[in-house]
Write the structure tokens for this entry.
Amino acid sequence: MTVLLLTSATLGMVNQVANETTEKGLEFGKTMMAKFLHNLENKAKDIDTIICYTEGVFNAVRGSDAALSLSFMQDSGVKILLCSTCLEHYHLETEQVVGTVSDMATIATTLIQADKVIKP
């Protein structure tokens, strides 16, 4: 089983780039995450589960550029698990547009059972 683990709304450590404002870096990182996930759409058959926790849950909510790609992959059979505690912490319970709300026990079990975990 292959698991894609998303722990951030951005791809990479964009806020630490010299001479770039935090907001501009954050938007660039979100764009990069959306592009990364878009490029995985045609490889969805190789991914069994996508797990979003901590700031990774921002990828699955209204207004996220990444949500469309996640929705496409979910429609292709990829299971998407969202950390319920994380959604609650960020007050995003009503903003979810893709995925299944899950608990940390299920998330931990899924990670332990995975043959491969990809964390971009």
Observations:
- The CA atoms of residues 23 and 43 lie 31 Å apart.
- The first strand starts at residue 2 and ends at 6.
- The chain is about 35% helix and 15% strand.
- The helical segments are 22-40, 67-75, 84-89, 104-113.
